[in-house]
Design brief:
alpha+beta
């Protein structure tokens, strides 16, 4: 028996298409990485930054800030280090992945399997004695956040919009109110809007401040095989980095409380 020629031909086409798709993804990934090494490095140099295509550090290094949902794997890329007013600043793109087979009781069925965001880490002017955290009220990952924060207290604030949208949790009320004065609250809300974040979280702990801005788009991409790097894509990366540095500067962190 020779079998069904049509079925055999169909299987051959499917196999060939799968191999072609696999090869395309591999070539596209290689192109993107090489384009970043050529173009993003140069853009970073122009802005007096250091760039690492593979990212700067794993998310686990700052997980105890408790502003990230539970995850099983993290991917980091596009890391930038620079100085601003004698303060070291690090930013990088991150992806948080959740494997269904590794779910624990902290993994709600509502959690997406994948999310992308921007992680920003800044040095404080002096170590902070208390841990303070800001998370959106409607952020559905809050049960996972609060695992290590049961002794924190929810601190009320006078700004109606901020109080309606955010929880502030701190080990000490006075410390939190000194940091989140009316001017900084306004700046924080403007920072969130300018970043285009679907959720913005912030933590102040010991000698650093960490922001996690959740967003859907992939930043700092010079091009792909289907859309090679051109002047427009490079201009966009330059503008993204300039905007981020300008936004960080507008935070005007309060020097009187050591930020």
């Amino acid at each position: 028996e020779t079998g069904n020629p049509a079925a055999s031909a169909f299987v051959s086409v499917i196999v060939a298409a799968s191999i072609a798709a696999f090869n395309f993804r591999a070539f596209d990934r290689d192109y993107r990485l090489k384009a970043k090494r050529i173009f993003v490095y140069k853009i970073a140099e122009l802005l007096r930054m250091k760039y690492k295509a593979q990212g700067l550090f794993p998310v686990g290094r700052v997980y105890e800030h408790y502003i990230f949902p539970a995850y099983t794997r993290d991917l980091v890329e596009d890391g930038f280090i620079f100085q601003m007013e004698d303060r070291k600043i690090e930013l990088q793109e991150i992806q948080l992945l959740r494997d269904k087979q590794n779910e624990s009781i902290d993994f709600s069925s509502l959690l997406p399997r994948h999310e992308r965001g921007l992680l920003i880490r800044l040095e404080t002017r002096r170590p902070q004695p208390f841990h303070t955290v800001v998370v959106p009220r409607n952020y559905r990952y809050i049960p996972a956040f609060f695992r290590g924060m049961r002794h924190y207290e929810r601190t009320p604030f006078g700004n109606p919009e901020f109080s309606r949208r955010y929880h502030v949790l701190s080990e000490e009320h006075t410390d939190a109110h000194d940091i989140f004065n009316p001017a900084f609250i306004e700046t924080f809300l403007a920072f969130e809007k300018a970043l285009g974040a679907s959720a913005l979280c912030m933590s102040i702990k010991k000698g650093e401040i960490v922001f996690y801005a959740r967003h859907a788009r992939n930043m700092f991409e010079p091009g792909s095989l289907l859309r090679p790097a051109d002047t427009e894509s490079l201009r966009k990366i330059f503008e993204e980095l300039e905007t981020l540095t300008a936004l960080i500067k507008t935070l005007k962190l309060n020097p009187y409380v050591g930020l």
